[in-house]
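Help!! Second protein's tokens look totally different from the first
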Amino acid sequence: MNYLVGNYKGLLLFFILLYSSQNHLVAQENTAPKKAFFEHVRYGGSLGANFSNGYFSAFLAPKAIYDFNRYTSAGVGVAASYTSTSRYSAFTTGASILGLFRPLQALQLSAEFEEQYVSRDFKLEGQNLDDTYWYPALYLGLGYTTGHVTVGVRYDILYDDEKSIYSNALMPFVSVFF
């Protein structure tokens, strides 16, 4: 009987120590400062312009991304662009959602779904042809990151050469996030 009582005392002492150490760890965790949501958010995006003989193109694409950890991020963005030549003009506006994966510090893989509202105007031999529609794009990208800048290329797997405002599905990009 003494053997059982001694084992119960030892077992009871073990559970008391376990419980108190667990409460101490939880108390320390609760008093540790937690990062606010916006401390994990980075802002940035892309912008650009192109001028040449009778051609003008400009775009603006601000984005906000949330860093879940060092490897993964997700975010949202808006975009607008304008293109003009002597026989063609187009205006787009849209929104996107994106995911980023960084398996290495300098390597960034991306996936971005973008929905654009497109308004095009063709001026062909005395005719004006207007066209407005929604255009979806799903970009898969690969980039090299150094500091706040990422340079890379992305590919639109939903590319439609009749509807896209871009000349092909493969596009270089430069993004800056702070």
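Here's the second one for comparison:
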Amino acid sequence: MKLSTRGRYGLRAVHYLAENEDKGYISVSDISNALKLPDNYLEQLIRILKNNNIVVSARGARGGYKLSRNSSEITVGDVLRVLEGEMTSSQCVANRTNCDNEECEAYYVFTKIDKAINNAVNSITIQDMVNEKFD
């Protein structure tokens, strides 16, 4: 499984909002400048996050975006699923009806991989990311 720029950029933006929540609402241009991400693309991602209740917005001079709830209540899995869709290693696990081999030897392996991926992304909150210090 490989994350697209949607997942990577969106997760970075959510992390930035969490790190800077004391500043209140933050504009997309401020986020894109700080993270060196394309403004227009980031605007699209933020809109998706807003429509899925990860962030909220305010208009006006002090407007922008902030997290919809405490960063300890939002998981990496929440953000990635909104932007990437279901976290799966194989279409056959995500939608068993697409599988043309009902006795697939690899289904067990793919299922185990999916469970591990989902357990990992569901166990990490955005606050965990904020607390993590990189050397």
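Reply: Different proteins will give different token patterns, so don't panic. The helical segments are 5-19, 28-35, 39-51, 76-84, 91-94, 107-123, 126-131.
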